[in-house]
Structures are given as structure tokens and as C-alpha cells.
Amino acid sequence: MYSFNYVKAKSLQEVSDFLKSNPDARPLAGGMTLIPTMKARLAQPSHLVDIGGLKELQGIETKDGALVIGAGTRHGDVARSARVREAIPALAALAERIGDPQVRNLGTMGGSVANNDPAADYPAAVLGLGATVITNRRQIAADDFFQGLFTTALESGEIIVRLSFPVPKRAAYEKFAHPASGYAMTGVFVADTGKGIRVAVTGAGPGVFRWNEAEAALGKKLAVESVANLSVAADGMNEDLHGSREYRANLVSVLTKRAVAQLAGR
Ligand SMILES: Cc1cc2nc3c(=O)[nH]c(=O)nc-3n(C[C@H](O)[C@H](O)[C@H](O)COP(=O)(O)OP(=O)(O)OC[C@H]3O[C@@H](n4cnc5c(N)ncnc54)[C@H](O)[C@@H]3O)c2cc1C
Question: Does ligand 1 have an atom closer than 6 angstroms to the CB of 76?
């Protein structure tokens, strides 16, 4: 690990000012991704600005038909929240299956969404539910936020403050977890938003994506039979020692059917 300076932030304004004057500084949330990345010498921030204790990044509330979650909320708190379980049970269930207890007790929703790992779970929920990412500068629709492998619309020094999830009529998430890490080999989030069906896929491709063909078919009839004969092309899917492109493409079909079956039961 390269040497760095540690700063404990007292307010969001202080973080914004600090990042503006120190372009090589990085916010530190749960540290579940950033610290291992630094240990592997893949990142060399000049300063870590600890945003873990900021009140502005905390809280879970329902407001105007949306579930609004502070970016600093830890995965375990999302999983245990009675408010999340009532409004969007699929989101609580997703959080409950992230990593292991240590990861869930330190990792945050904002850190996961900002990092945009291609195998992370939250991006599927954010995109599948058509959420809005609220930063210290603006509001960004999920459809504009995720821009491929570890890339988002966030600008230098921009901090995610909250995420606003429109409460769907029903939603379901199915993932095939990597047995060691829990990351999604593939995960599919299906939401009946009341205005249409959204299907978001994580883990399979270089970044989270919407499966438009499945959305159109399910929009006509929300039933497993609507997607029974659909498949995504293996070209462009991820391939590594854990699974081939074809394997992941097949997982997309299988998990979409499972998610729709789960949804139809609600
Ligand atoms: C063993 C292990 C297993 C895991 N399994 C899973 C899994 O099954 N599913 C899954 O989805 N994830 C998994 N993860 C990742 C985990 O969910 C992390 O919580 C997440 O990737 C990063 O969140 P964090 O709060 O730790 O962020 P950090 O590591 O602190 O930060 C990550 C990046 O985001 C930036 N950042 C942090 N907060 C903000 C913010 N509010 N605004 C702007 N930028 C910000 C940081 O500067 C950094 O670049 C796993 C991690 C580990 C170590």
C-alpha cells in the first residue's frame, strides 16, 4: 500500500470543499472495495476522506411514493430495516445476500453504487427500479448513471448523498452467487413499476444493463411463459475462469424466469 493521509470529515460541505482543493483525494465509506484496491496498489489516493460518520448520508424514509435511503446506509441496515422490508422487500432481500456479515456491516449503498462493480448487486436494483441518484450537486436518473465497467456519471469530487427508489407494485431479485465472495455471477432484478416492467441484469456483462426484449414481452403479459423462449446473445457477456459467456447468457434467461415466477406469486 502506498502512504496516504487520513481526514475525518465533519460535514458534507467540508468533504465537498476538501475534494475540490485536493483532486487526488477519495471519499472513504465502508472501505470494503477501496482498501483492498489500495492494498493491491491499484489506487493511490493522496488522502482518504472518511465520510462514514456523516449524518447527511444517513436515514431511511418514505416520501411521496419513494423510499429514500442515505448513501452511507450499510447493507446490513438496509436488510434489517422494517421500512425497506415493507416498501420494497426485494431490496431488503438483495442486501441480505451481499457478501458476508463483515461486508454487510461495513459496506454502504453509496459506496457500492459509486464503485459500479460489474458483479455488484445494488446497481441491478437501482436500474431495475428506475431510482434517482442524488448527489451533492444534482439528481441523476439510473438510466444515465451507470456507464459500464466501474464507470458512472459521477464527476470528480461528486458525492452520492441519497438514493430515491420509486416504490414499485412488486419486485423480485434472483442471483446466482459466486460461492466464495457472494458477488453475482449473474443477478436479475424485475420490477412491476405500475407504469411498466423493468428488467435489469448485473454480473453477466461488463456493466449492469436493461434487457429490453424481456421488458417488452413482460409488458404484454407478466408471466414466465412470456420470457420462456427469450435469450440474450453470448457475445459481449463476461467470460472468466468462473464461467463462459454462454454460461452467463444462459443464467440471464434462467434467473429472469425465476424472478418473474417469484413476482407472479406476490
Ligand atoms: C469479501 C467481499 C465480498 C463482497 N461481496 C459482495 C456481493 O456479494 N455483492 C456486492 O454487491 N458487493 C459485494 N462486495 C462489495 C461491497 O458491497 C462493498 O460495500 C462495496 O463494493 C463498496 O462499498 P463501501 O461502502 O465499502 O465503499 P468504499 O470501499 O469505501 O468505496 C468504494 C468507492 O466508492 C467511492 N465512494 C464511496 N462512497 C461514496 C459516495 N457516497 N459518493 C461517491 N463516491 C463514494 C470511494 O471513493 C471508492 O472509490 C464484497 C466485498 C468484499 C470485500
Answer: no
Please name the residue that has the C-alpha cell 416504490.
167
Is the distance from CB of 186 to CB of 203 less than 8 angstroms? Answer: yes
Residue nearest to atom 23 of ligand 1 (CA): 111
Q: How many angstroms does the Cα of residue 194 sit away from the middle of ligand 1?
A: 31
Please identify, in words, the CATH class of the domain defined by 170-264. Answer: alpha beta
Strand 66-70 relative to strand 160-166, pairing: antiparallel
Length of the chain: 266
Cα of 228 vs centre of ligand 1, distance in Å, is 34
* Distance of CA 121 from the midpoint of ligand 1 (Å): 11
Task: Kindly report whether the global pTM for this prediction surpasses the value 0.90.
Answer: yes
Tell me, using a 6 A CB cutoff, whether residue 253 lines ligand 1. Answer: no
Who's near 92: CB < 8 A, 6+ residues apart?
78, 79, 80, 81, 84, 85
pLDDT tens digits, one per residue of 12-67 = 999 999 999 999 999 999 999 999 999 999 999 999 999 998 999 999 999 999 99
Question: Measuring from atom 20 of ligand 1, which residue has the nearest CA?
Answer: 112
Q: Start-end ranges of CATH 3.30.390.50 in the chain?
A: 170-264
The domain defined by 1-54 carries CATH number 3.30.43.10: yes
The pLDDT assigned to 266 comes to 62
The span from the CA of 192 to the CA of 170, in Å, is 5
201-223 pLDDT, tens per residue? Answer: 999 999 999 999 999 999 999 99
Residues of the chain with CATH 3.30.43.10: 1-54
Q: What percent of the chain has pLDDT over 70?
A: 100
Point out the ligand 1 atom lying closest to the alpha carbon of residue 33: 29
- Residue 183 predicted with pLDDT over 80: yes
The verdict on the CB of residue 89 being under 6 Å from ligand 1 is no
